[in-house]
Amino acid sequence: MDLYRFLRGVFGSSNLAKQDVPEVEAVITAIDPLARRFWERKVEASLDYLMETLQTYEERLGTDEVDALASISPGKARNSALERETAAIIATLEERMSAPFGAVGARAIESAGKDLLREGALALDVRLALPSPLEATTARRDLSLLLSGRVPAHAQELADPLRGYLLDRSLRDALRGSRVTDRTRAWVAAVRGPLGGSWEAWGPQTVDAWAYRWHNVGRFLGGEQNGVRRWVAVNPNDERTTRFCRWVHGKVISARRTRKKLGAYFEAVSAGDRETMRSTWPLETPQGSSARFRRIFGDLGLPPYHFRCRTVAQPA
């Protein structure tokens, strides 16, 4: 892979060789900074837009219509009105965050998607012809949706201070005579930190899971083109291997179920349906007994099975 050879020349083969699938790790090394910049730019642009929204809202805070939020009785009615206002503002933020990668980023991610698919197939000595709809644009859209989906994950974190902001009586009193923007700036600054800094908690593992997902898709498609009908899950079984993946090692993957799951997943990606994406291919470290593991494995099919998963599909 051209990208892998380039990074091997820059960083040295010894560092990359320590990773389980060097070609995938090379893609992660290249794409992670790009995805980080994408997230940070979207956070800033979205919060700037949110600042404008809240400043506009401030103009209404001193009116009887909105002031009722702080005094509506009973509390249930007030909470209902507050939820509507809060949800509307967060939905605006989510909409802004859902904007796709720019042209340069899109090309880079599509190229990386092609590399992952091709190298996954080459791991089985197969050259893959990419069929629709498993084109590189789907890989790019997949990553964009995974990243933008973090706003709903932070909805509660955003909603709590926003409700306090909307209910602030002292702010309303001040607004009776003039506009106040300091409070808006303070609130935006308060949410900028956790939202912008949240990348460290989930960003790298999201890119990692995306890369190993597309590598395994390439393996599966390449194998099917070469007549493979029986697959097993294989992992390094090292100190990083989870209980689930130790259990899964060597077990047969249902090709029929995998084919069905892939179809459902990529339909969800095409539709921009993050909920169906998550339910079709969940990435949470499975817990429980062997009986539960068996049910989870039967449902999931193709790896990765959780964040930081290194299990791959191998012809049996």
Strand order across the largest sheet: 2-1-3
Which term fits the overall shape? elongated
Oligomer: single chain
Count of alpha/pi helices: 16
Largest sheet: 3 strands, antiparallel
Low-confidence runs: 1-8, 10-19
- Pattern of helices and strands: HHHHHHHHHHHHEHEHHHE
Measured as a percent range, the helix fraction is over 70%
Report Rg.
24 Å
Q: What percentage of the residues does DSSP assign to strands (E)?
A: under 5%
Structural class: mainly alpha
How far is the first residue's CA from the last residue's CA? 25 Å
Q: Determine the mean pLDDT.
A: 83
The counted number of beta strands is 3
Keywords:
single chain; 316 residues; mainly alpha; 2 domains; three-stranded antiparallel sheet; 16 helices; 3 strands; 3% strand; elongated; disordered N terminus
Describe the structure.
Helix content is 70%, strand content 3%. Strands 2-1-3 form a 3-stranded antiparallel β-sheet. The protein has 316 residues and is mainly alpha-helical. The chain is built from 16 helices and 3 strands. Mean pLDDT is 83; it is low at 1-8 and 10-19. It starts with a helix and ends with a strand. It has 2 domains: 2-201, no CATH class; 229-316, no CATH class. The radius of gyration is 24 Å and the shape is elongated. The longest helix is centred in the first third of the chain and has 40 residues, at 22-61.
